Amino acid sequence: MAVFALPAFAQEAAEAAAPEFASAAETAFIFNTLLFLIGGFLVMFMAAGFAMLEAGMVRSKNVSMQCLKNIALYSIAGIMFWVVGYSLMYTDVNGGYFGTPLPYSWPDAGTANEGDYSVASDWFFQMVFCAATASIVSGTLAERIKLWPFLIFTAILTGILYPISGSWQWGGGWLSEAGFSDFAGSTIVHSVGGWAALAGAIILGARKGKYTADGKVNPIPGSSMPLATLGTFILWLGWFGFNGASQLAMGTNGDVSDISRIFVNTNLAACGGVVAAIILTQIMYKKIDVTMALNGALAGLVSITAEPLMPSPLTAIIIGAVGGVIVVFAVPLLDKFKIDDVVGAIPVHLLAGIWGTLVVPVSNSGASFGTQILGIVAFGVFTFVLSGIIWFILKMTVGIRPSEEEEMNGLDMSEVGVEAYPEFTKA
Question: Does 194 reside within a domain?
Fold first, then answer.
């Protein structure tokens, strides 16, 4: 067979048209960056989940207020995390207690980043975690807190408190050096939000009419269980980004296999939390409380967040189920102490977060119970004490609570000016 060679000019044209294949390092860079971006927008969508969950759990006269708080807190968190938060959490921590309090910067447009992923993609991914922390506080304090004091607290929490405590572990600070383990933030995100919410709930007090003088609890039903259920499913979906992208790499077969396993364990833990809450409320109350089922799912998700990779599927179900049990028992316990938590965020995020962090050594031999307890206590004391001080200062200066008349009429009318359901309002 005769072999014909291309003319020189044709050979050069063919080589020029041939695609340039990325190197293994470039391919890993691309996939790692995509993981941060995809995980980031899934976690960003959790802001919608929190908004819908809270909108469904509050009375109709306060729905617009909760929607406003959630879009405002997300926006404030985004700005504060750029102004000071990210650098405080990640820049030059070096085994210490916080980083550099300066605005974060990244390479100019058109400049290729060095390293394993795009710098901006990492900032975005970490920022949405920061915003989620503030969303936890919003739900607990619903229906009886003024807007601007809440937003001031949000700015401090997302710009200073959360980044400082987060630097201890994720920024390579002192707890990281001690061997503390919290894969995706059962304590760093969820318990921190829960501690801040608990401090606020104690100082703010309960909604009018929630507790009687003789100690009885008056249930205050929410406005829409469909909205609350939608919010829960959105949060459940977003959690795959929350936990899965916390693998922080998607450039190898091993990374992708681990992410897949994290997805499975995350899903199974949520299922375990729901089933446990359903069975337990049926046994205790002879009826199934849908709000307990919703919070059972969220508690299961929070519980598995500290270590979603290492547990077996059965262990993940058990970890999530214990989270669901915690919710069922903790909600009435808070009522006994007259701590009014509108959406159940303290049992879900604080208590289930503690449980999830504490149980890490069961499946991860690299963690120890002593170090896990040290981390839980450190985050708790730091966040609860400083949050309490900030809430108290706000109470003594600008005031944090609307008048009794404003609370009775609803914060949509007094704080927002746009009612969520005006057709239901009498002229």
Answer: yes
